[in-house]
Design a protein that fits this description.
The protein has 161 residues and is mainly beta. The chain has a single domain, classed as Apoptosis, Tumor Necrosis Factor Receptor Associated Protein 2, Chain A (Sandwich). It has 1 helix and 8 strands, in the order αββββββββ. Strands 1-8-5-6-7-4-3-2 form an 8-stranded antiparallel sheet, with helices on one face. The longest helix is centred in the N-terminal third of the chain and has 10 residues. The radius of gyration is 18 Å and the shape is globular. The protein starts with a helix and ends with a strand. Keywords: Signal.
């Protein structure tokens, strides 16, 4: 449910609710780390690698790929042709000097701007070390059957060092 809310917020800009003048300002959390953030909109193509040129503080997104996971022939033949979910596969390279901890959110929209599905993911343990290239599988769950009819996708990245 949270990825759906995030996608809806990315797709529909909303102004923050007014704060009464007498309300005290919220204090920042002492343990919160500032996050680098990126958000963009791109043309969507199903089942084809899309080259990307996004660079967020030394983390370069080089490509994204949308498809259904299938077991390839010859790999556990009893599962041959079986589907195991729908994904957005994001490839990144850390060109910076420090390890990165990325988080990703993807929302797919049709030509009328209707939301077709959302996925999110990122580093669960560890980091993307300087010079390393890694691929992240972002899973679409529940609402995913119309993804192949997408027209645009939104990509959001939050990055911690």
């Amino acid at each position: 449910m949270q990825p759906l809310i995030l996608a809806a917020l990315l797709a529909l800009p909303q102004a923050p609710p007014p704060v009464p003048a007498s309300a005290p300002a919220a204090a920042p959390e002492a343990s919160a780390q500032p996050l680098s953030f990126y958000s963009g909109s791109f043309p969507f193509i199903w089942d084809r690698t899309l080259p990307m040129t996004v660079n967020l503080d030394g983390l370069k997104v080089t490509s994204i790929f949308f498809n259904r996971r299938k077991v390839e022939p010859g790999f556990f033949n009893i599962f041959k042709g079986a589907e195991f979910g729908t994904r957005a596969q994001v490839e990144v390279t850390n060109t910076g000097k420090y390890p990165k901890v990325p988080g990703f959110a993807v929302a797919v929209l049709d030509k009328d701007g209707n939301l077709l599905g959302v996925a999110s993911g990122g580093t669960k343990l560890g980091t993307v070390k300087p010079g390393d290239t890694e691929t992240f599988d972002l899973n679409f769950t529940q609402v995913k059957e119309r993804l192949s009819k997408g027209d645009r996708f939104l990509l959001a990245i939050e990055l911690r060092d």
